[in-house]
Amino acid sequence: MNVSGLNFILVGVLGLLGVGLYGLMVTRNLIKVVVALQILVKAALLGLILAGNLSGAVNLSQSLAITVIVADTIVAVIGLSLAVQIRRHLGTLDVKALSHLRG
Amino acid sequence: MAAWLVLLTIGIPWLGGLCVWWLGDQRAGLQHRVASAFAVLGAGVSLGLLRFTSPDVILRIPLGSAFGDFTFVADGLGVYLAIIATVVGGLAVIFSNDYMQGENQLGRYYALTLLFIGAMAGLVLSDSLLLTFLFWEITAFCSYALISFHNDDPKAVAGGIKALIITQIGGIGLLFGAIISYVYLGNYQIHLFLQGVDALPPVVLAWAAFGFLIAAAAKSAQVPFHTWLPDAMEAPTPISALIHAATMVNAGVYLLARFFPAFEAVPGWRLAVMLVGLVSALLAAVMAIFAGDLKRVLAYSTISQLGYMVYALGTGAVFASQFHLLSHSLFKALLFLCAGAVIHAVGTRDMFEMGALRKQMPFVYAVFVIGALALAGLPLSNGFFSKELILEYGLAHGPFWAYAGMLAGVGITGLYSLRMLWLVFYAPAHSAKQVHDAPAAMRLSLSLLALGTLTTWLLLGPFSAVLAESLPYHALHAESTLAGLGQVLSAWPTWLALAVVLVGMATWFLRDRLAGLAEPLQSVLAFIQDGFGFEWVNRQGVRLTNGVASGLQATQTGLLGWNVAYIVGGLILLLSLILWGS
Amino acid sequence: MSAPVFVWLILIPLLAAPLVYLGGRLADRTSHWPVAQALALAALLVTWLPFARTVGEIGASGRMGITLGSVSLCFDGISLLLSAVALGLGSMVVLFSGPYLSGQIGQEKYYAMLTAMIGVMVGLGCACDLFNLWIWFEAMAITSYLLVAFYRDLPESLEAGVKYLVQSATGSVLVVLGISLVLAQTGTLNLAEIRAAIRALNQPSPLLLAAGGLFIIGFGVKAALVPLHTWLPDAHSQAPSGISAMLSGVVIEAGLIAMLRALSALADVTLMWGPLLMGFGAVNMLVGNLMAFRQTQIKRLLAYSSLTHVGYMLVGLGVAVYAGQLDGAQGGFFHLFNHGMMKGLAFLAAGALLYALHLAAGEHTPLTISDLAGASRKYPLIALTFALAVFALGGIPPLSGFMSKWQIIVSGFETRNLVVVGLVVFAALNSVFSLAYYAPLVNVLYRWQPSPVVSRGRTAPLSLQLPLIGLAILILVAGLWPALANPLTSPAGTALLAAFGR
Q1: I want to staple B329 with a disulfide (CB 3.0 to 4.6 A). Which of B246, B356, C107, C339 is the partner?
Q2: How far is CA B554 from CA B228, B572, C224, in A?
Q3: How far apart (Å, rounded) are the C-alpha atoms in residues A53 and A59?
Q4: Domain chopping of chain A, boundaries
Q5: Which positions in chain C touch A16 (Cβ < 8 Å)?
């Protein structure tokens, strides 16, 4: 892989990271929060593949990446099911409505 | 044999506490009797230790790793304090039979009291600094739990927690010294510390010395850590007598006395000790003149008398300080139990609501007079002899300005003692209520304490002999009773002090004329009654903590975005720190 | 190939979990027999057998291992400690949860997830490469999400669950990023091989420094480091009390251990890890105390106080990593063990009161300090054990919390470094400060006048109180005879020091 390709992927990782974290901090919709979380995970996966490529441990990084995908899918499913419950009981998906526990 | 006695002195009260708790509050009558039995038994066992006093380690329990060995030594200093703890404890428990009649949750009361008695005995008999610290903490815990015994009274709870926090903060000073001993000398043993103190670097020794001074000042309610003792008066009065007059507050003085040979050479330490004692003695005595609550007067008086003992240690008079500690334990416990009898009969602690009790409570009046004589330092009470010893030694070996201050304190002591006696027993009656004199169990404790107050000065000779033999590092000399007493009576400072006391007492009779002077000094009076500013410092501390905590609470917004932002912020900060630091 | 016996510690709970779930579902819903709980309890009790054998076999070498292809599991002193705490507290919680959850729908999921979580935590302790570590860590997180949000009909519970999930997942992502950095630099994820590769490098690598920072923050979310802790008070107070006990008592500690394992691979990169841990410890202690001081809800107060105790552990372990003091490592791990017992007991006792005063009547209101007034008259055993737990947490001798704190403070003095000594004295001061909010709880409990809530309270069943007695006895014994815990804490301490090469 040539150097500019590496840089491109690095920028991609950092960009996705930024978008994901920004989304988590700013978004008010719970579904968007789960999506932002997924973007973060993709950033991490990209980083993992990049690292595997850089150091030559391609198989290791791929197997870890697949495991991460599985694990975070489960997390996303749980998150979305919680979102469904919240919509059912609170009638809204606004994160601001989820701020009764404070102090 | 001595090892068994030590274990029994600690164990019998503890076992008693367990039994009383187990009996349950339904059988209150039995609880009173069982507690008294165990307390008296413990006292008897501790008296047996008198035959075995020696500076040798008599019991060793190894614990390993950072905990060292638990060792016990039954030397004169430890044994006499253990005897005071168990004997006065026993008398307080007997007194409680009447005082706590009809109260709820007696199991908790007696269990904690007996736990305290055992722990106090263990504290003074321990030779391992870790074990001493352990017992120190247990006594602080019992003190807190008993002050706040009436949990439904917010003042009692606040007083208990204040006492707990302040004495625990002081305890860190003791922790300092204990761990320094372990780290630099490899063990926690006190006798090895005194033996090998030269192996410590001077700076480290100084840290240990001042750490112990802080711990002692907090435990013995000396300035600036004295603010917990007046508030601790919310405790039931037998507890005030036992813990806050006769035993736990002695622990600080005990600590300083035991480690005196190790620290006397540390530059500035003896002066600091003297100052702490002097300031406490004077400050508290002045506050006692203006207090209206009978128990508060006695609390201030305790602070002041402990100041005398601390001052004595500062000048190097180890024996005089311990002799006064013996006297004070007895007469202060006596005074507190009298106060308890009066409060129990009258139903209030405010002296201005008492008065003319001389005719109605003749027995209590008689023993109260004995206690007041001892407090003021008049013959033939034990307080007279021990206080004069302190003053003489202070004049001979300490700076003159300190002696002058302590002499002035003697006068003030006379003043507030007489004031207290007058307001309770002589002043015109404020209510037409008929009150009863003290019942039987109370009378028993009071008589024994009064007897002690009138006679323990005769033990000067044997007492000094026991201390001199069993404390090899303290360079004490035994004196016969007659020689010691003769020395006191023939020295001119004694008569000077007596004169000062009488002048102080006379001031009481001139109070009407002096009241005119007090008018423009109202704000000063308010300042004095608010504890010379120390209570203000305490309150500011609490306010500051609450303020900071509230501010911090605002950061827990409950909003997800903020929470993630904290994570991101933490990450950025940490990465910058790591990359900058490498 | 014969598997070393410790593998069973992981396998039994994991294999039992689906059986617990199925058994619970298949049993008649209205039967009074709590099938799921019984199966879970049976599984855990069976797991104690291989645990006993492991303790016997580990003595000589201090380590055991197994390798299946490229996956390897290593069992050392730290694994032993974590398994002991997880199994011990887990068994008590399963016993406790029976009456606590009676009548609640979804119990089979609860017990299945709880059993799985215990197995997964043992697995976490056995990981010797970063891949494995992350998998077990994530699995633990997943099982705990479902347990925290157990009360699916309560908005507060859902709120706590969502926040916990999002923050914990963020942390996991950061850990993966850290793993990729390590992989990029060294080409391997095995802890021992990473250390070898680092030693082969001649100059310090910024990638590895960044990886260390990511590990601290990523695992630190789970280990409740300040300022990553914001999920903790919500999750610990809304979860069923048995899960609160597990979360505070084992889960955050498991996060701490995962962080230490990951950092141990990077031990040769910089000497900053020890001071960083100590710094976080100092902040945790202070923030935990100040926040707990202001709380009026019992479970929230206990949750914040967990921050403080993680702080003590960090100080002890940080001193060990920085200065190689075995007392620090042993003290930190002893405190980990004690905290599991003490905080577990505190949460279970609070849970028992919550059950008797609120849950049994069908209310899901939180337990406040004023609710406790006079509770000692009606619930003497629960009040006594709660008081014991709370005073142990405050460091009053002769209870176990005092002993572990003492060991940590001694280790700080042993470094003879003024800053470190100042730090442990600060820790001692924090311990004193914590009494300012622990002691009033006991005062309120022992009032004579009961609160209206207490007057209306129902009885607490015996099986709710049994685990309380067990934990209380453990706390007393460990306090009176701290050397009894040495077989657990000493191997863990030496393993930590060995991992960091000291």
Answers
A1: B246
A2: 32, 22, 18
A3: 9
A4: 3-99
A5: none
Percent residues over pLDDT 90 in chain A: 71
Distance CA A28, CA B130 (A): 56
Give the gap in angstroms from C-alpha B196 to the nearest C-alpha of chain C: 19
Whether the predicted pLDDT of C28 surpasses 80: no
A24 in contact with B, Cβ within 8 Å: yes
Nearest of B252, B281, B256, B278 to residue B266 by alpha carbon: B256
**Owner of token pair 């001031």:** B507
Judge contact between B83 and B43, C-beta under 8 A: yes
B545 to C290: CB separation less than 8 angstroms, yes or no: yes
Under the phi-then-psi rule, with left for phi > 0, alpha for psi from -120 to 50, and beta for the rest, what region is C458?
beta
Cβ–Cβ of C184/A50 closer than 8 Å?
A: yes
Instruction: Tell me the CB-side half-sphere exposure of residue C82, using CA atoms within 13 A.
Output: 31
b/e map B270-292, b = 16+ CB within 10 Å: beebbbbbbbbbbbbbbbbbbbe
Residues of chain A with a CB closer than 8 angstroms to some CB in chain C: 17, 20-21, 24, 30, 33, 37, 40-41, 43-45, 47-48, 50-52, 54-57, 60-61, 63-64, 67-68, 71-72, 74-75, 78-79, 82-83, 85-86, 89-90, 98-101, 103
For residue A27, which residues of chain B lie inside 8 Å, CB to CB? 561
Contacts of A101 in chain B (CB under 8 A): 558
Q: Whole-prediction pTM value?
A: 0.94
Q: Which of B100-114, B495-509, B559-573, C109-123 has the lowest mean pLDDT?
A: B495-509
Residues of A in contact with B546 (CB under 8 A): none
**Regarding predicted confidence, which is higher, C204 or C126?**
C126
Residue C60 pLDDT level (bands cut at 50, 70, 90): low
Q: Looking at residue B243, what DSSP letter applies?
A: I
| Cα Rg, chain A, nearest whole Å | 17
Q: Write down the ipTM of this complex.
A: 0.95
Question: What is the β-pairing status of strands B69-73 and B57-62?
Answer: antiparallel
Nearest CA in chain B to C414: B183
- Any idea which residue has 């005990």 for tokens? B254
Q: Which neighbouring-strand residues pair with C297?
A: C368
> Among residues of chain B, what percentage have pLDDT more than 90?
62
Give the HSE-up count for residue C50: Cα atoms under 13 Å, Cβ half-sphere. 19
Chain C's closest residue to B153, CA to CA, is C447
Cα dihedral A38/A43/A48/A51 (nearest 10): 180
What b/e sequence results for A32-63 when a residue is b if at least 16 CB atoms lie within 10 Å of its CB, and e otherwise?
Answer: ebbbbbbbbbbbbbbbbbbbbbbbebeebbee
Give CA–CA dist B494/B407, Å, rounded: 10
Rounded CA-CA distance B446/B341 in Å is 9
In whole angstroms, give the CA distance from residue B22 to residue B376. 44
Whether A25 sits inside 8 A of B564 (CB atoms) is: yes
Q: What is the pLDDT of residues C278-314, one digit of tens each?
A: 999 999 999 999 999 999 999 999 999 999 999 999 9
Q: Candidates 1.10.10.10, 3.30.70.2750, 3.40.50.720, 1.10.287.3510; correct CATH number of A3-99?
A: 1.10.287.3510
Q: Count the helices and strands in chain C (H runs, E runs).
A: 21, 2
Average pLDDT of the residues in C206-217: 94
Q: Which residues of C8-47 are buried (b: 16+ CB within 10 A; e: fewer)?
A: bbbbbbbebbebbbebbeebeeeeeebbbbbbbbebbeeb
Compute, in degrees rounded to 10, the torsion defined by CA atoms C19, C21, C22, C25. 150
> Of C232, B139, C448, B441, nearest to B147 (Cα)?
B139
User: B333-372, pLDDT tens digit by residue?
Assistant: 999 999 999 998 888 889 888 888 888 888 999 999 999 9
Beta-bridged to residue B71, according to DSSP, are B60
Check residue B560 and give its pLDDT. 93
